[in-house]
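Q: I have 435 residues here and want to know how they pack in 3D. Can you give me a structure?
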Amino acid sequence: MEILILVVTLVFELAIAVYSIATKQSRSKIKSWTRIAIFIVFLILILGKVVVWEYTWGLFAGLLFILAFKEMVVLLRNQTHTPRYKAFSTVWKFLLLALTIVVTLVPALLFPQHRVPQVTGPYAVETATYSYMDKNRIEEFSDQGDNRFVNVEFWYPEQTDGIYPLLVFSHGAFGIKASNTSTFTELASHGYVVVSIDHPYHSFYTVSEDGKIVMINSEYMQEVNNANKEGFYSLKEYFELTQKWMKLRTDDMNFVMDTILEQAGQKRDSVYERIDTQKIGVFGHSMGGAASVALSRERDDIDAVVNIDAPFYSELVYDKATNELTAKSEAFTIPLLNVYSDDVWIQLDRSSSYIANSISNENFKGAYNVHFKGAKHLSVTDLPLFSPILANLLHAGRKVDVDKYYVIETQNELILRFFDYALKNQGQFAPKATY
């Protein structure tokens, strides 16, 4: 729809320019009525919900209004003087206006309207956001001596006729807490309280309850980017970086879980009273998936884990003598679902970073492993839905050979069935190896 509107608008403006050149008129009623009509048609599309109004349309709508208003003034004004016609001026004005149209449509093109994955559960879903301050930690990314704060968002059943398992989510390296909103909404609609964490300075951006905005830390961002370059870090340096990242993530997750469990049952008519503190699952994407696996080793109150496209950083051991990464020899006994895209699947038996993830690792012989063939690393998030262009750019041109809705909706179903089986003892869970 966005591209169609861009093309149609440019075609009409080109037609106006060609007409002006052909008739040697810089002003005409046809030009005025055409621009007014374009604005009216755009309003009709919005009112008819053919175009779903979002803030991304704001600049373009403003441009159309200005053009239409200007032409209305021209029509109402009785002008006796006709400006001298200049073909060069007409061409120049068209090129400038065409560029302006493209620029004002950039937000809508980057974040086009899209179908939201269908929610299948019986519960209406509510959301709530909170900012928690950890009085026991100083923010390592700041030199102000402030305590670290963590922003969270809940998705939970509106009904208060019972208590529901708690699911804690951690986003990817440069992600945000809303990265898998469709997953959270689907789970909450089936009777789960889902809390997603923004890890300040690890998330692309995060906003606290008081409006404070924190962007991603540039040094951390550079570390992650460099870690993805073969040979940039020594194996020892790479191992130390991953463990540093894991500590910050698991410290945040531990703090959030402890805060929630402390609040559970104490506040009436709030999200906390809906939580079943005896049934807890953790899950995450990429670095957040790695942190979820790590956290489940640290706590004895976690009953199920979902790892979405991540290496088991916490399961790696660096051998100084051989300069190799090996996998820990401790059995993993908690129910675990691994969801892999092509990007990770092909590395399971090739990269030392994924040696613990290997299907042949006996310590994880009870884990469920699912591979979405044709999917890429961000296909298992909501990003391809609300910004296909951005997702393609971040995939660096690597082709996605599977329908984006098929991946996210199937994944959401699998995660729901897994947690139902592991936390609610409902049904059986026997996923296919490849989807």
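Q: Anything worth noting?
A: The mean pLDDT is 92. The first strand starts at residue 125 and ends at 138.
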